[in-house]
Amino acid sequence: MMKKLAMLTCAVLIGASVAAAGAAAPKTLTVKMNALNKSGENGTAILTDTPKGLNVVVKLVNGAKVAQPTHIHIGTCGKINKAPEYGLSSLVMGTSDTTVPGITIASLLKGHYAINVHKSSSDLGTYVSCGNIK
Ligand SMILES: [Cu+2]
Asked: What CATH number is attached to the domain comprising 35?
């Protein structure tokens, strides 16, 4: 009798943990970054949910020595809202690592957002790389 109850409890616990894993949003998301305006700055942005917020690591080839302002904007690369929604650390030599508090992969996937890299702080109007968060 006791043995049967223990086995039943075990089965219920396994079932519960499988259900929880299935319902959870993805913990990481890779965004493909595409070069714009002949910059050659292709690469990825890897998004990871952390207890402190959304960690965004951007890695592009052909990066510049000057800081390249990088943000999450509302919209898509084809039709982007010019005002930055969330600031990321500027790219230097193609690399940037930022944790943005208060947002998650799931919250961004509810709308349309894109990661956008600008040529330099003195030439914000020229976009050098962009990736849609989807
Ligand atoms: Cu921007």
From this structure: 2.60.40.200
Residue 40 DSSP class:
-
User: What's the predicted TM-score (pTM) here?
Assistant: 0.81
Cα 51 to ligand 1 centre (Å) = 25
107 falls within a domain? yes
Domains contained in the chain, number: 1
The boundaries of the domain holding residue 36 are 26-133
C-alpha span between 2 and 127 (Å, rounded): 67
Give the model's pLDDT for residue 13.
Answer: 45
Q: What is the mean pLDDT of residues 85-100?
A: 98
Domain-located, residue 102: yes
- Spacing, Cα 127 to ligand 1 middle (Å): 8
CA of 56 from ligand 1 middle (Å) equals 14
> What pLDDT score does 4 carry?
52
Instruction: Say if CB 131 and CB 115 are below 8 A apart.
Output: yes
* 12 phi/psi in degrees, rounded to 5: -65, -45
